[in-house]
Amino acid sequence: MTLLQLTSLRKHYGAVAALDGVGLSVAAGSRTAIVGPSGCGKTTLLRLVAGFDQPDAGSIVFGGRVLVDGAFQVPAHKRGIGIVSQDGCLFPHLTVAQNIGFGMEAERAVKEASAAELMDMVGLDRAMLSRKPDQLSGGQQQRVALARALARKPRLMLLDEPFSALDTGLRAATRKAVTDVLTAAGITTLLVTHDQAEALAFADQVAVMRAGRFAQVGSPREVYSRPVDPATAAFLGEAIVLPAAVAGGRAESPLGVLPVDDAAYRGSAEIMLRPEQISVTGGGGNGVSGTIAEISFCGPTSDVRIALGGTDISIRLDIPSREALAAGDQVTIGVSGKAHLFRQ
Amino acid sequence: MLLGSSMSSIAETSVPVVPRRLPAASSWTLTIAVAVALAALLPLGFVLWATVATGWETAFQLIFRQRVGDLMVNTVLLVVFTIPVCAMLAVSLAWLTERSDLPGARLWSWLAVAPLAVPAFVHSYAWIGLWPGLHGLSGGVAISVVAYFPFLYLPVSAAFRLLDPALEDQAASLGLAPFAVFRRVVLPQLRLALCGGALLIGLHLLAEYGLYAMIRFDTFTTAILDQFQSTYNGVAAHMLALVLVLCCFVLLGLEAGLRGRRRYARLGPGVARRPKITKLGRWKYFCLLLPLVVAAFSLGIPALTLGRWLIAGGAGIWRMDEIGLALWQTLVICLIGGIATTAAAVPIAWLSVRRPTRASRFLEGCYYLASSMPGVVVALALVTVTVRVMLPLYQTVATIVLAYVVMFLPRALVSLRASIAQVPVELEQAAASLGRSPGNALWATTVRLAAPGAAAGVALASLGIMNELTATQMLAPNGTRTLAMAFWALTGEIDYAGAAPYALLMVVFSMPLTWLLYSQSKKIAGR
Amino acid sequence: MKTSSTLPAGIAALAFSVLALSTPASAQVADSITIYNAQHEGLTKEWVDAFTEETGIVVTVRNGSDLEFANQIVQEGANSPADVFLTENSPAMALVDGKGLFEPVDQVTLDQVPEQFRPANGHWIGIAARSTVFAYDKTKLSADKLPKSMLDLAKPEWKGRWAASPSGADFQAIVGALLQLKGEEATAEWLKGMKENFTAYRGNSTAMKAVNAGQTEGALIYHYYYFGDQAKTGENSGNVSLHYFKNQDPGAFVSISGGGILASSKHKEQAQAFLKWVTGKGGQAVLRDGTSYEYAVGKGEASNKALVPLADLQAPKVEASTLNNAKVTDMMTAAGLL
Using the 8-state DSSP alphabet, how is residue C151 labeled? Predict the structure, then answer.
């Protein structure tokens, strides 16, 4: 069942189009991530859903209720949508308890009791309730912000890069905690991030955004393995893109003849492989041979550029740092799995 | 007079973190800072001494009498009516100019500060020009509001600029309607600015003489002047001064209590979004009424009355020899006072930035406390002390300059401190490593680089001195006649036309300094 | 030693320059005097300008009010920078004289003024005079409704109907006369009634202006404010008329403006010259022809023609040299007027 339906949303700031006709369906209980480089319009989209800004055109329907349609607009405070932003946005003049109770309409005692429960839920010590926000660490602030948003029992939670300000170690832990809480509460979630790994790990639906449009929407595995174009492929991770002649589900490429994921296509095209599909071995063996043109040692992996034999094409990838390889060495390149074909 | 103290609460948040590595202590800096603090605390000491010298019985008789009660009622009512009206006006205007698409917002913002260029007693003069019967509490409150609301508008509008609009979005997402957001999120964050500005206005209400004398509204300050004119520094005047000082302490205590300990610094590393601008839509023209009416009362009335008297007086009121002399004397005394005030502020400014110890904070507190004392108390103290103890200083420029230093030091301190904080301490250390003594190193680096801040300090202190009437009247050396004194003498003889050129000159000279204040507040807020 | 710190040196230099500037200008010129002036600034300026032109003696004027200066001179004692003290009323003179701080005035000068306008001891001298009047709104009060005596103004029927400027030396002199004429008890009673009845204004001109504007029916002030305004535009006295109490009533009190030379003066010769000039032909002519409208007191000197002659005022006999202002301010403070 669709909880949130965005249709043809447009938003201009002066001459710049921040959103250029965006549509998206979010299923109830799902986790959707919107990922894209900074300035692609993803935060604008979130602000439109939250009700902080008004679109120039398009509609937003939430749980069967029209929030935005043309000039009609439900104000933010009547939407019942929670949001946790990049820096938590706690009210500096209130204690943790007052922050959590801020949006609740209940008696003081009820508020205090629920604040304490919410602190347990987000994994914070109840003793912190009386503190002011500036006495908390960044990760703690984010958890309080989540608790505050949860206190209103929203059906939809918006997360605006909530982990990006945290240290790398804290980030994964906080993300895991937040995901668990939201899943347990059965709250539909819309995450905005510029970190593709975060998006892929978090969501069951990923929308890749570029220049005010969705380039692709799909499951994490789908957008990663079967991106719509080379740019999307590159954004979501390392990609080796090669020219090939394709026929009958097989591609003739500089890496030899490879199976592709499109049986119908005939003609020349670009194909894509992810680095994890490629193995590099020293000396002979099965596969295409190449020469190491450059190599630089980076600890567990080494960054190599391999000139493919018989072509002027070279590929660049990280390989595990094993036996000493050096520039000029001959290697054999093996490929596993299917190559992804970009239809032109 | 006390402009500094409210501006400092804005400035403090923007002063960069003090470097941990401190230059070698230079004891003379501390010595001078302590000496200036002692001089600044002289008026307070005087009030205590006067009370003890009077004897409890006489003091009791002079304090607990009907007249003091009447004055107390007047003072309390004045403060209780004026400050909330000023606060509402300042918040509304600041919201309109900073957070709405009001047409001409920048112009209105400047016009909301501009009334500061008109001395309070000139406001009074302008109003009774239009309504000769104006008197008492209602008149006092009305004129006080137009004369002093900019002291609240300045910090409140700066605070509006510093607010993080994301907090307001967040509150809306938590189910708060716009007005509730304003009440529960915006207003609490304006609290520091509101408290600082309100204190500043409160202290002005207690200290002002000319404004209330002109419209026959008795306050402690006017009553002290009455006593002074009847008995010079008599015991009754001393006891009124004691009560006045106690009133100041009550205000200071109230402010400290309401402000609380905490600063509402912005949390997290994110960059503040541009503030949310509310579209007024069809309310636009209705909202324009507010700044328009305020400007009409705070600027239009002075302009109208002054213009009328200037036209009515014609060429005859421009007695250039007298006006020229008064102008020259005023400028000289402003310059000497401004430079002395700034020089006196250098040691403590340097200490508070470079060596922020508990002792330096305490010293700084002494300066703010001393400058909260009304001019009439400062003058009464200096008159008494010089005539009884330090006769060589009696009726000299040195004494009146000392009064100005006590009254206006925070203005110079705020400017100096902000600019010293921007000079890296490494420069001083580099100079020291090149063989300069600590004092010399300070002079060659920080003092030179902080010169613009010092210039602003001189300008702000001079603005205060130019429009100062109470202490100047009581302490001016023989033969001195400033613009304010001449203006006051002429209005006393109800020669309103003759007083107009002096009022005009005071306003004209205050304009650039008021502009400086305005642009400084914009800069503090990072724009 | 090159390491001497420039900053403290700079501050010291500034302090010295301030001190250098601070020496009173008059002390630097031998042929000059300093006047503590409580008279109207305009009148004294006319006197001083003409005096300097005639004698070449430079005069520095400090303006203030009668009792402020009197008390100030007492506190300054032997160190007073003042050479001459001019007042609007006598009590301030009596106060300074009571402390023995006056230098006797030269006999030549004393001889220029009749005895009733100077104290018997000759320690100071009358330089001008002014009469108490009830300035009333002629559109509201007819002659039969005017108070017969100043004492009537303390009666309940005058509640809320009249004005005065109690903080001024002028009014305090009137109370001083009342005290001398009627005694302490009657004066205290009258002040109590006054506190109930009157409206306080700051300055006599302001009080008269209020009468003219219809804010109050009458004001107890001195006569010359009315004539001064009439001579200008009359805009503050168009509706005003003067009522002289006469009949030796306390309200018919004629107050003597005094001039005295301080015993501590280092320029006594010039100071004597000044008083001689003010009470002589030149000084008294300024009263007659100028815009002050105060009465001339010199022997054979005429006052301005517009004034009711001094001789017709039927003033009560008040000994100016014993008017006790300290008592008056105490009583007024006790009555809640100050």
Answer: G
Distance CA B368, CA C170 (A): 40
pLDDT tens digits along C154-164: 999 999 999 99
Count of structural domains within chain A: 2
Count the helix, strand and coil residues of chain B and give each as a percent rounded to the nearest 5: 80, 0, 20
Predicted ipTM?
0.79
Pair (A139, A22) in one structural domain? yes
Q: Which of B22-36, B59-73, C81-95 has the highest mean pLDDT?
A: C81-95
- pLDDT by residue (tens digit) across B361-416? 888 888 888 888 888 888 888 888 888 888 788 888 899 999 999 999 888 887 88
One domain, residues C134 and C225: yes
Question: Cβ B216–C200 below 8 Å, yes or no?
Answer: yes
Q: Please tell me whether C40 is known to bind a ligand.
A: yes
Distance from CA of C245 to the nearest CA of B (A): 25
Same-domain status, C248 and C141: yes
CATH number at residue A260: 2.40.50.140
Q: Which residues of B touch C20 (CB under 8 A)?
A: none
Neighbour tally for C241: CB within 10 Å:
18
Q: Which domain holds residue C235?
A: 130-252+325-334
Bridge partners for A73 per DSSP: A68
- CB-CB under 8 Å, A133 with B173: no
Do A218 and A271 reside in the same domain of the chain?
no
Residues 6+ apart with CB under 8 A from B287: B96, B100, B102, B280
Nearest Cβ partner for B188 among A50, A93, A138: A93
Domain assignment present for C259: yes
C318 vs B268: which has the higher pLDDT = C318
- Where helices occur in B296-396 by DSSP H, the ranges are 301-313, 320-354, 358-371, 375-388
Subunits with 3+ Cβ pairs within 8 Å of B are: A, C
| CATH hierarchy code of domain B3-16+24-264+285-524 | 1.10.3720.10
Q: What is the mean pLDDT of residues C164-183?
A: 92
A50 CB near a chain B CB, below 8 Å?
yes
Nearest chain B residue to A150 by CA distance is: B174
A284 and A138 together in one domain: no
Residue in A43, A48, A53, A87 to test binding to B, most B beta-carbons within 10 Å: A87
Q: What is the mean pLDDT of chain B?
A: 84
For B316, which DSSP code?
Answer: G
Asked whether the beta carbons of B389 and B485 are under 8 A apart, the reply is no
Q: Is C225 annotated as a binding residue?
A: yes
Secondary structure of residue C240 in the 3-state scheme: strand
> What's the number of CA atoms in the CB half-sphere (13 Å) around residue A9?
28
Share the mean pLDDT of chain A: 89
Note whether A277 and A336 are within 8 A (CB): yes
- Report percent pLDDT > 90 for chain B: 27
**Domain around A176:** 2-231
Q: Count the neighbouring beta carbons within 10 Å of the beta carbon of residue C332.
A: 24
The model's pTM: 0.81
Structurally, how many domains does chain C consist of? 2
Nearest to C190, CA basis, from C240, C149, C231, C132: C149
Contact between C67 and B65 using a beta-carbon 8 Å cutoff:
no
Distance CA B514, CA B511 (A): 5
Query: What CATH number is given to the structural domain containing C227?
Result: 3.40.190.10
| Shared-domain flag, residues C151 and C295 | no
Confidence of residue C258 (pLDDT cuts 50, 70, 90): very high
